[in-house]
Write a structure and sequence with these properties.
about 1200 residues, mainly alpha, 55 helices, flat, disordered C terminus, coiled coil, Cohesin subunit SA, HEAT_SCC3-SA, nucleus, chromosome
């Protein structure tokens, strides 16, 4: 239909239109065009032979701007849009088909399509066929196109695209757009693309069409102005007398008016074609971004060319779209309307629209999207400025209560609406009012604010109301003189005095305004909190605080004297000194006003017993008793006098009660209670230790406990006062007491853990307490801050004896926390921060950490493995933060992490079946961590954590042969084909880890099945041979077997829930009284406290499948000789490696070997003497030193002496 409109419109040639210009103007245009043609190369010549250009990843390989397409020039944004458009116009004038073809390809490429429309397609195919062809070549897999891509480049491209269209129409508005060719083709193309099912085509073409429409509206507006001017000139010339009339000028003006009218009609036809062909269909598109574009542009049309577009035919689309489901579309509707309501001229033409959609706009003030609600309130404020009666009282009340909203932008917008509605109207009678005092204009506005505050039935938060009005009415809220005048001055004749409720509301508003002025941040619950103030804001804050002090230092004693009997008013008034600049009392010579204030506060303490009033008095003295100011002594004397009087009175009353020995009468009880209230209120903010209130309160409570006749309120306040006494003592607690408190807390958590319900004590289940995540974090942070410190950093210890004693205390702290880990009181993952310190602090805490790992593995092998790998990951991340992503793998930090991984690997022993799932899960987490973060070098570079695979390879030897294959398959899930081909140094961790999974497939030294089936016989055989080792090997460790029918089961294993913890024996308590100092026997070691009962350590052993057993027996004889040699060499090599730092790591080796099959055991005994096989390495120097210490946590006898306690833990 729009094509028909275009074809039926009357057009005239360009030369005819140019004839209406003056001859001088035409001559200048011809000269300029001739010079441009001689000096510039046309865009068609530049693009000749480059109709289709090759691209790599969407970018041209040539840097020459002459070889770039129009799309790429706009994308780069290096050329001015004006010059780009001028070049295109020159090429269009030279040969319009190639130029128009370039413009068509420009819109196609802006949509993200890589296809190109060639000249043959352009000449022989319809637009619909071209669009269908481009759709076939469109890559819809990625879903990205320029307008949907993020980043500054594409954001700038969108702006450049819109600017290009606007400049193109502006430069062509006098000639080319009327040639019946360019605009017809472009509009037809954009209309067809906007109807495409491809989102990229639809979005891009809609944006282009709307911007094209906006540019045409601007052209139509200019034509309308020129047409009006020409018509006015014609009428002026025609109205002249016949003698003065110039007929030639009349004919010229008439011809010019005719041509302008024809041009305007043609532009209107183009706009109708775009509006009906694109806007009508796309303003309700399924894509919200497209709807936003349509609404934004129609708002621009109505604002630019209101005579044509500001009518109900176009406004209805904005009104309908205000009901859109997407908040961004509703927001765009409101912003579009704000541009119309802002103009008083346009506002008058919106009456019908306002009456039709006013209810919807009012309801949008409660929109779930806060941004929409804010703009709806602002729109109503603009509508209110033009017509005060456009909103009813109900409409205004629905906005008023939003000043109490928790969302500050909504509240501020509602505060501005309230201010415009109630405070911005001044009558003629307000002209002669004084600027200050009770009769000033601000005083009347303050009255209005108080009335509004009292009439707000929904809320009573004065701070929220003040904050809402702060941005628009801060000058009013800072008029302290007018507020004080309303409270203290007598009303003038005929003036209505403030009621008691109004006075209380005014005092509260005045306090909130003072607080807002001094703190410069919104009240609690509204806004992000405190922010950094600028230098200007800080200066304003200091000036306002000085003014507040000077004003209220004089007025506050008078206000307290007037309202001293009203608890609510006094409570608010006593909070003002907290915001004073106390230096003003001295510099301003206001000491007499300070004395008056102290007298009033003292009278308030004597008159009132309400808790809020007394606490306000206490906080007032706390604010004034600042040792940094010279008024401290003056205030401290008054405070001491008040407390001396109250404490002496309390002692006298207490003695009378204790001497009588009877229940106190009502008068005595009231006197005791009121005195206790005053003392307790002051003790909350002041240290009253020197008055020894604990003894007096103890006597009072003891008397009430013995006689049972003490009133409940007296007991409550006595307990509260005693509570404050204890808190003030705790505030002076030393660091050593903090360590004791930590130990006691750990033991308390252990006692009240799930262990308390064991052995038939289910009745104690209500006492079970599990620490939350925050408490666990605090405990762990205490350990990290107080245990893992170097002795050089401990400045409190000078001599060697003190250092040893400090080490002893730190070991006890660590042991107390480790008990929480192994007894499942805290999450096992918290042990990662402990385990990662194993190498660094081995000499001090190595035995404790190693035993903690051993017991944690017994509780849950998989979770323990996850904790170990987590500790390595934490160390790796710390190393990256210190050294950066381009670190050298030969650095001491990386080598230390790798060595720690090797030590962790040794703790798993030789029984690969027992640790099979744990090792597998460890590799799984390690692989995922290595490929978790992308490469900082961009695509093609190694992942950030790829070097972690080098650390993970230390655990590859603990995998079974079939598990190595499965882990390798899981690794390949994260690898790309290009990764497998890389051989650079940065890829060496991946190469070495893959090799560790591929080599050694035949290195299994023990048969899995035979090792499982003959374990019981091996254990019984071992028990017959007494061992001569000094350190006993643990017996009866928990064992489990896994079926070999599904080797890859653990790779995809998901933790469906927490593992049921093993119920371990009741632990010893660290905080109990220690025995006398004694030496630890060497054979005792430090491992006794973790002993477990045999009943809790055994789990049923699953039998292997029959098929697996038969396969193992078939292969047993074929591999016996080969495995014997490898096993023997492996064991000897392991024993030799055990002489290093971690000498205890090799203890399980003997057990694993002795748990092998009987056939191999005989062979092993031939080459190894098990009488001398026990590991007996010399203790380290630090252990010899520790043997001289008094017993620490790891001596069970010294920690829990039955002879002293003679009771069980429960």
């Amino acid at each position: 239909m729009f094509i028909a409109l275009l074809l039926t419109s009357t057009r005239t040639c360009v030369s005819t239109r140019m004839s209406c210009l003056h001859e001088a103007e035409v001559h200048v245009c011809i000269v300029i065009l001739s010079k441009m043609e001689k000096g510039k190369k046309t865009l068609g010549e530049k693009l000749k032979g480059s109709e289709v250009r090759g691209r790599v990843n969407g970018h041209h390989q040539e840097n020459d701007m002459e070889n770039l397409s129009l799309f790429e020039i706009i994308k780069l944004g290096k050329s001015a849009t004006q010059s780009v458009v001028d070049d295109w116009i020159e090429s269009y004038k030279t040969d319009r088909d190639p130029a128009l073809l370039e413009l068509i390809n420009f819109f196609i490429h802006c949509s993200g399509c890589k296809g190109v429309c060639v000249s043959e397609m352009f000449r022989h195919m319809q637009n619909s066929e071209i669009i269908r062809k481009m759709t076939e070549e469109f890559d819809e897999d990625s879903g990205d196109y320029p307008l949907a891509m993020a980043g500054p480049v594409w954001k700038k491209f969108k702006l450049s695209l819109c600017e290009f269209i606007a400049v193109l129409v502006r430069q062509c508005q006098y000639s080319i757009i009327y040639d019946e060719y360019m605009m017809d083709t472009v509009i037809s193309l954009l209309t067809g693309l906007s109807d495409s099912q491809v989102r990229a085509f639809r979005h891009t073409s809609t944006l282009a069409a709307m911007k094209l429409m906006t540019a045409l509206v601007n052209v139509a507006l200019n034509l309308s102005i020129n047409l009006d001017n020409t018509q006015r000139q014609y009428e002026t010339e025609r109205n002249k007398s016949i003698g003065k009339r110039a007929n030639e000028r009349l004919e010229l003006l008439l011809q010019k008016r005719k041509e302008l009218q024809e041009n305007q009609d043609e532009i209107e036809n183009m706009m109708n074609a775009i509006f009906k062909g694109v806007f009508i269909h796309r303003y309700r598109d399924v894509i919200a971004e497209i709807r936003v574009v349509c609404i934004e542009e129609i708002g621009m049309w109505m604002k630019m060319y209101s005579d044509a577009f500001l009518n109900d035919s176009y406004l209805k689309y904005v009104g309908w779209t205000m009901y859109d489901k997407q908040g961004e579309v509703r927001l765009k509707c409101l912003t579009a309307l704000q541009g119309l309501y802002y103009s008083r001229e346009l506002n008058a033409r919106l009456e019908l629209f306002t009456s039709r959609f006013k209810d919807r706009i009012v309801s949008m003030t409660l929109d779930k999207e806060y941004d929409v609600a804010v703009q709806a309130i602002k729109l109503l404020t603009l509508a209110l400025q033009s017509n005060d009666e456009v909103l009813t009282a109900e409409d205004c009340e629905s906005v008023y209560h939003l000043v109490y909203s928790a969302h500050r932008p909504v509240a501020v917008a509602a505060g501005e609406f309230l201010y415009k509605k109630l405070f911005s109207h001044h009558g003629p009678e307000d002209e002669g009012r004084p600027r200050r005092g009770r009769q000033c204009l601000n005083a009347n506005l303050i009255r209005t604010t108080v009335l509004f505050f009292l009439e707000s039935e929904l809320h009573e938060h004065g701070a929220y109301l003040v904050d809402s009005l702060w941005d628009c009415a801060s000058e009013l809220l800072k008029d302290w003189e007018s507020m004080i005048s309303l409270l203290l001055d007598e009303p003038y004749p005929g003036e209505e005095a403030l009621t008691d409720a109004q006075e209380a509301a005014l005092i509260e508003i005045m306090l909130c305004a003072v607080r807002q002025t001094c703190e410069c941040h919104p009240p609690i619950g509204r806004g992000p909190g405190k922010r950094v103030l600028t230098a200007k804001e800080k200066k304003t804050q200091l000036d306002d605080r000085t003014k507040i002090t000077e004003t209220f230092a004089v007025a506050l004693p008078l206000l307290l004297a007037k309202y001293s009997v009203d608890p609510e008013k006094v409570t608010n008034l006593l909070q003002f000194p907290q915001y004073f600049d106390l230096e003003i009392y001295t510099t301003g010579r206001l000491e007499k006003h300070l004395d008056a204030l102290l007298r009033q506060v003292r009278d308030v303490v004597e008159k009132h017993t309400e808790k809020d009033v007394l606490e306000a008095c206490s906080m007032t003295f706390h604010a004034l008793c600042n040792e940094d100011f010279t008024i401290y002594n003056r205030v401290d004397i008054v405070r001491s006098q008040i407390l001396d009087e109250q404490v002496d009175k309390f002692h006298r009353l207490l003695e009378d009660i204790l001497q009588e020995g009877e229940e106190p009468d009502e008068d005595d009880a009231y006197q005791v209670l009121s005195t206790l209230k005053r003392i307790t209120a002051f003790h909350n903010a002041h240290d009253l230790t020197k008055w020894d209130l604990f003894t007096s309160n103890y006597k009072l409570l003891n008397s009430g406990l013995q006689n049972g006749d003490m009133p409940e309120q007296i007991v409550a306040h006595a307990l509260q006062c005693t509570h404050y006494v204890i808190l003030w003592h705790l505030a002076k607690v030393s660091e050593g007491s903090a360590s004791k408190a930590f130990t006691i807390l750990c033991d308390a958590l252990l006692i009240f853990s799930y262990q308390i319900v064991a052995s038939g004590r289910e009745a104690l289940e209500p006492l079970v307490f599990s620490p939350d995540a925050s408490l666990q974090s605090e405990l762990l942070n205490f350990i990290l801050d107080h245990v893992f410190v170097d002795q050089d950093e401990d400045s409190s210890t000078d001599d060697e004896a003190n250092k040893i004693e400090a080490l002893h205390r730190r070991r006890n702290l660590l042991a107390a926390f480790c008990k929480l880990v192994i007894y499942n009181v805290v999450d096992m993952k918290t042990g990662a921060d402990i385990f990662k310190q194993y190498m660094r602090y081995y000499n001090d805490y190595g035995d404790i950490i190693k035993e903690t790992m051993s017991k944690a593995r017994q509780i849950d092998k998989i979770q323990c493995a996850k904790t170990l790998i987590l500790s390595l990951q934490q160390l790796f991340n710390e190393m990256l933060s210190d050294l950066g992503c381009n670190f050298d793998r030969s650095t001491s930090a990386f080598c230390g992490i790798k060595e720690l991984a090797r030590r962790f690997s040794l703790t798993f022993g030789l029984d690969q079946v027992k640790t099979r799932e744990a090792i597998a899960m460890l590799h799984k987490d390690g692989i995922e961590f290595a490929f978790k973060e992308p490469s900082p070098q961009g695509e093609g570079g190694p992942p950030l954590n790829l070097a972690f695979l080098d650390i993970l390879s230390e655990f590859s030897s603990k995998l079974l042969r079939q598990d190595k294959k499965t882990v390798h398959l899981y690794l390949e899930r994260f690898m790309t084909f290009q990764m497998a081909l890389q051989r650079d140094d940065c890829w060496l961790p991946l190469i070495s880890y893959r090799n560790s999974l591929q080599v050694g497939a035949d290195d299994d030294t023990l048969s899995v099945i035979s090792g499982m089936s003959s374990r019981s016989s091996a254990r019984s055989r071992r028990s017959k041979q007494p061992a001569a080792s000094k350190r006993k090997l643990p017996e009866g460790t928990c064992e489990s077997s896994c079926s070999s029918s599904d080797v890859s089961m653990w790779v995809n294993r998901e933790q469906s829930g927490p593992h049921t913890p093993v119920m371990m024996s009741s632990p010893h308590i660290v905080s109990t009284v220690l025995r006398d100092t004694k030496k630890l026997c060497p054979e005792q070691g430090y491992m006794g406290v973790y002993s477990m009962s045999n009943e809790t350590q055994h789990t049923p052993l699953q039998q292997p499948s029959q098929v697996a057993w038969m396969m193992a027996q078939k292969q047993q004889q074929e591999r016996a000789s080969l495995q014997y040699g490898k096993m023997r060499g492996h064991i000897q090599h392991t024993i030799r490696r055990g002489s290093g730092l971690m000498e205890d790591d090799e203890e399980p080796i003997v057990e694993d070997v002795m748990m092998s099959s009987e056939e191999r055991l005989d062979d092993l005994n031939e080459g190894m003497d098990f009488e001398t096989m026990d590991i007996d390495l010399p203790p380290s120097k630090n252990r010899r030193e520790r043997s001289e210490l008094k017993p620490d946590y790891f001596d069970p006898a010294s920690i829990m002496d039955d002879s002293v306690l003679n009771v069980s833990m429960f």
